[in-house]
């Protein structure tokens, strides 16, 4: 697969451990690609759920995917402030169809005031039992929650205002907003 270039649009597909498609974002503009990461932005993009429900995102959202970390980060730019939704998931894969990853249920939400909340612990426990997540997955995910919390606490990468400002500016330039 040819790596998408700055300004290209890609789809994002989230799967579950058993292989079923969980959620699809139709269009995300690529802002940066490197050997290990992809940064993009989507706004008013169609999202399709596994059950067929469809909705459109309301605010611009920066997306951050990394080849080495078991999480991805969605930075939501709202009038009320910046909030984050972090999916505990496999590192991304890229093919001609989309950016793809397996979503492992656990999420960390960061509110504009800095409050952090670990979400969907019950869903993770239920799916772990139902789909027999291997013990290594549990270890990897818990280690990556620790990395994520450290990034949040230190304002690293997507959790810094400079990152948000830089990539939103680049999105505006490329999309002629």
Automatic annotation (TrEMBL):
Residue ranges annotated for the DUF402 domain, each copy included: 18-156
SUPFAM superfamilies, A to Z: FomD-like
Keyword entries, A-Z: Hydrolase, Magnesium, Metal-binding
Pfam name, any one: DUF402
Molecular functions per Gene Ontology: hydrolase activity; metal ion binding
InterPro entries, per the entry: DUF402, FomD-like_sf, Ntdp-like, SA1684
Record carries keyword Signal: no
Domain of life: Bacteria
Stated name of the protein: DUF402 domain-containing protein
């Amino acid at each position: 697969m040819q790596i998408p270039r700055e300004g290209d649009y890609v789809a994002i597909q989230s799967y579950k451990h058993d292989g079923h498609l969980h959620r699809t974002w139709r269009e995300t503009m690529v802002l940066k690609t490197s050997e290990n990461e992809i940064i993009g932005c989507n706004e008013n993009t169609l999202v399709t759920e596994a059950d067929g429900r469809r909705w459109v995102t309301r605010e611009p959202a920066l997306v951050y995917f990394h080849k080495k970390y078991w999480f991805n980060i969605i930075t939501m730019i709202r009038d009320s402030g910046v909030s984050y939704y972090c999916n505990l998931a496999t590192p991304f894969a890229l093919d001609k169809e989309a950016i793809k990853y397996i979503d492992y249920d656990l999420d960390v939400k960061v509110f504009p005031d800095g409050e952090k909340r670990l979400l969907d612990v019950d869903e993770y426990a239920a799916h772990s039992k139902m789909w027999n997540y291997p013990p290594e997955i549990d270890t990897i995910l818990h280690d990556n929650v620790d990395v994520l919390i450290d990034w949040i606490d230190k304002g690293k990468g997507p959790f810094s205002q400079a990152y948000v400002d830089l990539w939103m500016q680049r999105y505006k330039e490329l999309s002629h907003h």
